[in-house]
Design goal:
Blueprint lengths: L8 E4 L6 E3 L1 H20 L1 H15 L8 H13 L3 H15 L7 E3 L3 H8 L4 E4 L7 H10 L9 E2 L12 H11 L6 E5 L2 H4 L8 E5 L6 E3 L8 E4 L1 H9 L10
Parallel strand pairs: 1-4, 1-6, 4-5, 6-7, 7-9
Antiparallel strand pairs: 2-3, 8-9
Helix pairs in contact: 1-2, 2-3, 3-4
């Protein structure tokens, strides 16, 4: 494996980075399917309340409960069902309706080509927001035209205890994988969700349809950050002396 200025591990976001979506139609379709399932159990009003309770919970890290278990506890409370029965209901529901959402997604241009180049040079971790079970995340990776097996590890709901943009999320990746922050580069597309990684000492590159590569100045950052295209990212990684940790 080729090493470039200590960067050995690429932490790659999914939504907006590898996989794009038509946000409005996706939201409408997702909410329709969710309400259709929940209203059978508890009615439309409570279905709306449970989804709002879920959104509030996503903002808080947990020291002991996985993201999946926290979600299950909320659903179990509102549905008045045991945890295992709630888990079965949610898994069956997701398996039933989630594949129908594929029409709202599309591969991000340049993402697969970049990963094809990077996979033999760096350890790849899929650092997606861990809302979903592993099988749903892998399904969505395939929608991006990418084989999930290229990733050594995936951040999914059963194994993580925090969500983006919490600093706890990025620190947990480092702890679980035994990575040193200075050996990692996070690749994302969302300034709010991804740039907090710099506070954990992880260099960050925001990809998009930018005309040139630019340095981003982030308050409280412990590592540098840039924005640019996938071509700019590869160019940066291929430099003989890339400035990943020389200055902030």
């Amino acid at each position: 494996m080729k090493k470039t200025d200590h960067i050995q591990h690429l932490l790659v976001d999914l939504d907006g980075t590898l996989l794009g979506n038509r946000a409005l139609s996706l939201s409408v379709d997702f909410l329709k399917h969710s309400y259709d399932i929940l209203k059978v159990q508890i009615g439309f009003r409570q279905a709306a309340q449970i989804l709002m309770a879920m959104q509030r919970e996503l903002k808080k890290p947990s020291a002991h409960l996985s993201n999946e278990l926290r979600t299950l506890k909320i659903f179990a409370h509102w549905l008045n069902m045991p945890i295992e029965e709630t888990r079965r209901l949610i898994r069956e529901s997701l398996s039933s309706f989630f594949p129908k959402l594929e029409k709202h997604f599309y591969p991000i241009v340049g993402a697969k080509e970049f990963l094809d180049w990077a996979k033999d040079r760096y350890t790849l971790t899929l650092a997606t927001n861990p809302v979903w079970p592993k099988e749903i995340i892998e399904l969505r990776v395939r929608w991006a035209g990418i084989n999930p097996s290229i990733f050594k590890q995936i951040t999914y709901a059963q194994r993580m205890h925090a969500y983006k943009p919490s600093l706890d999320y990025y620190q947990e990746i480092l702890e679980q994988e035994g990575f040193k922050a200075q050996e990692c580069l996070l690749i994302g597309n969302d300034v709010k969700m991804d740039l907090p990684a710099t506070r954990a000492g992880i260099a960050t590159f925001i990809v998009g349809s930018f005309k040139k590569r630019e340095i981003l100045r982030i308050k409280g950052a412990q590592a540098p950050a840039w924005r640019g295209s996938y071509a700019h990212l590869r160019e940066l990684l291929e430099r003989k002396t890339p400035p990943f940790h020389h200055s902030i």
